[in-house]
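Researcher: Next entry in the queue.
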Amino acid sequence: MQEPVGKQSMTEERPQPTGDSYEELSSDSIEKNTDRILADEADKETNSVDHSLQQAEEQNQLHDNVENNEMVNRNPSESDSDSSSGSDSDSELGKYFYPKFEELEAARKPEPGMKFQTLEDANGFYSTYALLTGFVAKRNSNYRRQKYHIECNRSGKPTPARNPNRKRKINSFERTNCQAKVIVKLTKGQWEFATVRNEHNHPLSPNPSLARFFLSQKHMSSEEKSFLKVLQQSKIPPNKILRIFRRMRSSFGNISFKKQDPVSSVRSSSENIPSKKKDPISLQCTEQRKTENSDVESALKHLKELELRNPSFFYIKQTDEDNIVRSIFWTDARSRMDYNIFGDFISVDTTYTTNRHNLPVATITGINNHGRTLLLGCALLRDGRAETFKWMFQTLLQVLGGKIPGSIITNQDEPLGRAIAEVLPQVRLRFWKCDVMGKAHERIAAFMAARGNIKLELDSLVDNSLTEMEFEEGWSSLIERYDASKNEYLQFMWRIRKIWAPVYFRQDFYPFAESLGRGEGMNIVLFRNYVLPKDRIEKFIERYEEIQKTTLKTDDEDRRQAGTVPSCFSLQPIEKHSSTIYTRQIFLKVQRELLHSTAFDVHVVKKGSVYRLERVFNYENPEFDRNAFEVFVDPVSNTFICQCAKFARDRLLCCHIFRLFTQLGINEIPGQYIVPRWTDKFKEEKAKQYTEKCLEKADSTARYEMLMSKMADLSKKICSDGTKCNAFMLEFDSIQEKLLATDGENPRDNDNCMEIITTS
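Model: Structure for this entry, 760 residues:
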């Protein structure tokens, strides 16, 4: 019997996620295939085309059965008249899917909420994803031309067992009742992915060589493109087109399809191209880089305009040896102050890429005293290498005052993690659990589907473990029970368990990390439903402006609510007490814990020190799906510690301790459990300290932000009273005249300015 994965390194120290094996296993399958397709190795250029085409021809023999039946042609002139009806005619024999270059570059895993201008765009996106992932998509049911199912071609009831003596048809394939699909709905004039299921119950067969061939269209000559178009219009299967070009390559000389840099292109083609002529492929690559940089320059121009409109906004750019802008980081004075106040925890998300060049975009977010998301800064990056991420974090520290965050949570990305370890070695790093588990479900979907309830048990183990020992022993038992010790991806997840499994972060401040919307990464929440990958960078910057404006409006609403008394659902004194302590949104979270506390009974294990809380009623969305918790009490120090460790994670008491308070007659939250960070006064006091600090440094941008904030607060208070407004305007005009009169005097004479304001 094989030893379970977990037993091989049960006591190992926290691993550092480095090395090729990490990168290979942690990358998303789409990203990995596309990166591999786009990668150029200058020392292998000479024979790369022959090798790629030969490899593709061998691989495509395995794909003929699927392609000959299922690939859909996007050419409208050759579509059936009912092509918009979603009928099965889309998968007729002789019709094929030919992806566009832009679709291959922008390919990524489909997600709910993605929007497209046309149904063909949605179908093309999913079919391209299918091509890279290793299955074939077909479009099915139509509901009043407003709802379509795009499914895996292996959906449907399994094919009955055939007569072994009967010869199998060449074009046949096995149906497995696969549930992978997307449901596309017409919503407000756009086609939206309403439902997405990415798990397959059968092995996938990605074909990077075929995708590489389609990507090569951008670097083909006009004659080659015309010939390719003729073959596609003649309904030639893609794999056969690939073979035709391979034969042309062997018969007519150097027909190169691979993207090259100018040096390697000239070197590899020197035998066939006269030395005085420039390599057309080199020119194409140079032109591509010019186009890419023109998009960055256009974004830079937009940022400069934004800086002129808003003095508190600023950006920093990174240039290469040719003084060409490659990366940009931007933020504003308000975000700097927010980071100074709420920078104890930040989230960094690099899962989004914008524009046709697939430039990564990173967002740095935090959480304010209302539990709301703050957008602290954004970065447009040249690539996803560790060196680029290092520049981003070094810039972040420089721009945001040098404050070191206490904890960081990011998407699963090895270069990103390596950069944080080098620039911020003292910071606690964690990967989003949902990102790690989501990639696992996708990478080993067929493996899990063949093993019954392993997926459900794995999810439950990760979500509900209260101790490291419980998690590790449960993992070992699960691996052994399902004979999964040889699965490489599960082995990989085990090796890096201490940087993603929630049980290892029970004592670290990651507020509301498992809440809806945060586990998926903030880019999804903030940008993906508003900015499409094919949009230009300016669209992303415009969305950034919208987010900041929305944040200001939300802050105003929170300030107005601070002057009102929230309603209580019970007559418990502790609920009334908490309503006077916390901000409104945090009080709602505490109120929910108080409500959930009524679902538990208290049992004394050891009087005065240990109590057992047992759930007697079910309620929606419990943090842990288990029925009993123990609370440990120290009467001397008046401390309460629950097994769920919510106070350590969120700095809020849990429903179990609240229930014990009721049992023990404690009617107010003890002072040591009132964390100032979640109170109304916290931001006010910290903001005052920050502005005083900035005034000492003569930071004009911070002064601008401070003045604007004070003016806004005062305006809200007096705007409804015409008499006060008129009196304020008279005083303001008087102060303004006196300040302007001192322009010719010593600008450092602050005492003189203060005297003017005082006498006014």
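Model: The two ends are 88 Å apart (CA to CA).
Researcher: Noted, moving on.
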